[in-house]
Amino acid sequence: xxxxxxxxxxxxxxxxxxxxxxxxxxxxxxxxxxxxxxxxxxxxxxxxxxxxxxxxxxxxxxxxxxxxxxxxxxxxxxxxxxxxxxxxxxxxxxxxxxxxxxxxxxxxxxxxxxxxxxxxxxxxxxxxxxxxxxxxxxxxxxxxxxxxxxxxxxxxxxxxxxxxxxxxxxxxxxxxxxxxxxxxxxxxxxxxxxxxxxxxxxxxxxxxxxxxxxxxxxxxxxxxxxxxxxxxxxxxxxxxxxxxxxxxxxxx
Amino acid sequence: xxxxxxxxxxxxxxxxxxxxxxxxxxxxxxxxxxxxxxxxxxxxxxxxxxxxxxxxxxxxxxxxxxxxxxxxxxxxxxxxxxxxxxxxxxxxxxxxxxxxxxxxxxxxxxxxxxxxxxxxxxxxxxxxxxxxxxxxxxxxxxxxxxxxxxxxxxxxxxxxxxxxxxxxxxxxxxxxxxxxxxxxxxxxxxxxxxxxxxxxxxxxxxxxxxxxxxxxxxxxxxxxxxxxxxxxxxxxxxxxxxxxxxxxxxxxxxxxxxxxxxxxx
Lengths: 252, 265
Fold this sequence. Notes:
The complex is a heterodimer.
Chain A: E1 7-18, E2 21-32, E3 36-40, H1 47-54, E4 62-67, E5 70-71, H2 77-84, E6 87-90, H3 102-113, H4 119-132, H5 148-160, E7 166-170, H6 178-195, E8 198-203, H7 206-212, E9 215-220, E10 223-228, H8 230-235, H9 240-251
Chain B: H1 14-36, H2 44-54, H3 59-83, H4 90-128, H5 131-137, H6 142-181, H7 185-195, H8 198-224, H9 230-263
Helix pairs in contact in B: 2-6, 3-4, 3-6, 4-6, 4-7, 4-8, 4-9, 6-8, 8-9
């Protein structure tokens, strides 16, 4: 599926601890252009920490992260901000600005990062994105008036407004009913097809992983124990912990 | 955000370490404000929105409190002055008390409760729900958008509110003086302006600017550094009020000493 030649993300020897809690221990990971990589692991295993380090919300203790061949640790704050425009981050709880309407939520990053846009161009972009997440009627609603699934969709639309090349989804299906989960999984696949993004999906939901991922990476005790296709990682799993993770998800 | 590093073992004792670390963090926060306030992008629209929230929305509370303070302070002072046959000095006494101390202090304390807690809770809740992180990953500077705007709005609006409180308190005082001593409005205000000096008004404005800045920056600092969880939001709002009030009293004491030194020099 992926183009072996073109790595968009290259993580080597990543270490991160919070006091005595060693969350990531010598993590290596690659993301190839156009692929959806799913990072799986139990709650508190450091999945979200990994992607937060990628966008500079947290700093690693050791190791390197190269995105588009650039070492993110070497970037100044100004350079990092420019760099962030190429990466979209969809938050677990959507993180919509609750004092703004849906329209204002989508406009906010656009008008602050793209200069000299006319009102017509802004409206066109906002409406186009709301159409793409199938929520055009919510444009004047406040986040408090939206359901959990709608919030996730609007959060993804807001992230897409800056045309990112990489999408990072933090637990996109957490707290949603099974039908809405499938809708969000489909949306993640649509985003990849339509906007030609490469994505990392953080989840502990194997259904989401199976539906959205080209490759899986299982994070256990700060290491990626298995990386590969869903079949290779789970159905042919020999590792006890990976097996139990699979069994728990499908037996329950 | 901050370059201050936490060491694993206590340098002095755990509590003292935390205190000094907190002081250093707060100092770095204030320093960052003065660094960021001069450079674009300037969020004029957000500053105006905050001025409306802080200023206009505080008017009903400030009006009521100011008017009552004017009446109560006049009624409480009258018997003491009357004992010396100096009840006619009431307008002078009240105006000095209101302009020099009561107006700025009462307005600042009310604003610390109303504005400081609201800023602390709002930013704290944005922190907890990752809205601040969302700004950061969208290459928007949350410090500039949230902290600089709110602190500037509080710094500009508190002096205006103080002047308004002074006026309303004097009107309350006039209502009492007029009812008891039958003094006319013009006579009342002639006495007021005779008693109040330029230094009184100037020091009141400077004091209000300092109080406004304190309320804004403390609210933002507490909100920005709130711990995760809903409990943290409540704590941020609460400690924003307590810390602002504490600092306002210290500042009042210091500014009063400086102004008195100038006055009697």
